[in-house]
Write a structure and sequence with these properties.
This protein is mostly helical. It has 3 domains: about 60 residues; about 100 residues; about 150 residues, Orthogonal Bundle (hpI Integrase, Chain A), CATH 1.10.443. Helices cover about 50% and strands about 10% of the residues. It has a 3-stranded antiparallel β-sheet. Strands 4-5-6 form a 3-stranded antiparallel β-sheet. A hairpin with a 2-residue loop joins strand 2 and strand 3. About 25% of the residues are buried. One of its GO terms (biological process) is DNA recombination. Keywords: DNA integration, DNA recombination. It holds the Pfam family Phage_integrase. One of its GO terms (molecular function) is DNA binding.
């Protein structure tokens, strides 16, 4: 007898509600087959349960010896599952797509061995990829394993990854991300390049240099810079409300009043009031321009996010206290910068 059951679950950490749909096939009190998936809505869980039961009744109990999907297949499943797909950021999506085209992704997951992980890292390093970027590859693969195990009921063992770490570090195939300081010479080169790009384009285009300076001084992410509005600017107290600021504990509604110190307020007041937003530009247009200039200048391993660290360093150098800088960056612990 095949049946399904939907169980409502609430996370103790975040309070998020999910619905676990469990499929079971029993005979004479013995469970012959079981699987489950998690959903964000009860309706979706029930719909999947009904469809899965109908499929089992039509085709019989799935063989426990069915061939497991490849790593490429698991990545595809994650992209196709709306509940998972909506949680994948741009960087992770790009990284997973790249991994999906690599040789390692063609192997069935039950055939992946430590040697395959090491070989993948060697090939990536040989192509000129940095050790910290390769480490991100491995973290993404491990994320796919964990996600597939919970959501798709695949029996996956990530020991091929965990057992490879010591070798990968010892051979400098992977490394932890370096907290590089973007000091004046490198940033001045970048500003000159951005100014040249700005001058070559039609008037009214993105003011790259001022946005770079503001990003550093305000310690805001580029998405936050492009969202702040004149209405949320407190000119008297030199502060601005940053709405839905990124917080691992809270996906939305995390509005923060951020002080504009160290010259950030003066930069805001220089902007023309031609839109409800102070910097009325698409962040997805700003970042590629920044990346093209960075690549042209040969500045390696520099992300827009690194400007937040530079900004925090400058505020400390100007004598601001830890709690003042934490208010600007939005971090409860300054170690996060």
């Amino acid at each position: 007898m095949a049946f399904f059951q939907v169980e409502k679950r609430t996370s103790n950490k975040t309070g998020a509600v999910t619905y676990k749909c469990s499929i079971r096939v029993k005979s004479k009190g013995k469970i012959l087959y079981s699987e489950y998936r998690n959903f964000s809505k009860a309706q979706a869980a029930n719909a999947w349960g009904r469809a899965r039961i109908a499929e089992i009744e039509l085709n019989g109990i799935p063989s426990q010896q069915d061939e497991l999907p490849t790593l490429q297949g698991l990545i595809k499943f994650c992209f196709e599952d709306n509940n998972i797909n909506t949680t994948i950021g741009r960087s992770k999506r790009y990284g997973l797509s790249l991994i999906s085209d690599c040789n390692i992704a063609k192997l069935p997951i039950d055939q992946l061995k430590t040697k395959h992980i090491i070989e993948h890292c060697k090939l990536r390093r040989a192509s000129g990829t940095g050790a910290s970027t390769v480490a991100t590859d491995i973290s993404f693969i491990r994320w796919v394993f964990k996600t597939a195990k919970v959501n798709f009921s695949h029996e996956i063992n990530d020991s091929c990854i965990t057992e490879a770490y010591d070798i990968l570090y010892s051979q400098n195939l992977i490394s932890k991300s370096e907290k590089r300081s973007r000091r004046p010479i490198e940033l001045e080169k970048l500003k000159v390049g951005l100014a040249e790009r700005q001058a070559q384009r039609a008037s009214g285009d993105i003011p790259y240099v001022e946005m770079l300076d503001f990003s550093i001084l305000s310690c805001m992410r580029i998405g936050e810079v492009c969202k702040i509005t004149w209405e949320d600017l407190d000119e008297e107290n030199k502060a601005v409300i940053v709405r839905d600021r990124k917080d691992p504990r809270k996906k939305s509604g995390n509005h923060m009043l951020v002080p504009l110190i160290g010259g950030a307020f003066e930069l805001v007041m220089k902007q023309p009031r031609k839109d409800e937003r102070i910097f009325p530009y698409n962040s997805r247009s700003v970042t590629p321009g920044f990346q093209r200039v960075r690549a042209k200048l040969g500045i390696e391993d520099l992300r827009y996010h690194d400007l937040r660290r530079e900004g925090a360093s400058r505020l400390f150098e100007k004598g601001y206290a830890i709690d003042e800088v934490a208010q600007v960056t939005g971090h409860r612990a300054m170690a996060l910068t």
